[in-house]
Design goal:
It is built from eight helices and no strands. The chain is mainly alpha-helical.
Length: about 140
């Protein structure tokens, strides 16, 4: 465990490392922290940009502090929601995560959302799904 001398920082570093490790373990990645981070970032940024600003903020409020900072990086709420159907949603994530993985980009989404489940309440996950087109929410359904 990291010891910054500030308990809140230590806790968020630990939670973030656990989240990234869960993604790595799901794919059998060793020493690929930058790849697990890229997967997390691609999925969260694409989801955030598809949500109404209020829903995006509610989701962000539930993330560990360090992940929350990454989540809000480069966000432009005035340009959201970015209308995307399933293929556009998948394409957007593929642009942000240009690595090949077994199971394709939908596998990346499932793994990331499964890892995030511990941090997002069931009620918030249901609110997110309610605001998405049916073909996108079938992918995001992993969050519940």
């Amino acid at each position: 465990m990291t010891n910054t001398g500030f308990a809140e920082f230590d806790a968020t570093i630990q939670k973030t490392n656990e989240l990234l490790k869960e993604i790595e373990d799901a794919f059998g990645w060793e020493n690929r922290r930058s790849q697990s981070y890229a997967a997390l970032r691609a999925v969260l940024h694409t989801l955030r940009d598809r949500l109404l600003p209020n829903e995006a903020v509610q989701l962000g409020a539930q993330l560990p502090m360090l992940v929350r900072g990454m989540y809000y990086e480069d966000w432009q709420p005035a340009r959201t929601p970015k209308r995307m159907h399933k293929e556009e949603f998948l394409q957007e994530i593929m642009l942000k995560f240009p690595f090949s993985v077994e199971g394709g980009i939908e596998s990346v989404i499932r793994v990331v959302l499964r890892a995030l489940r511990k941090h997002v309440s069931k009620g918030e996950a249901q609110d997110i799904l309610a605001g998405l087109p049916d073909d996108v929410d079938e992918i995001i359904n992993q969050l519940i």
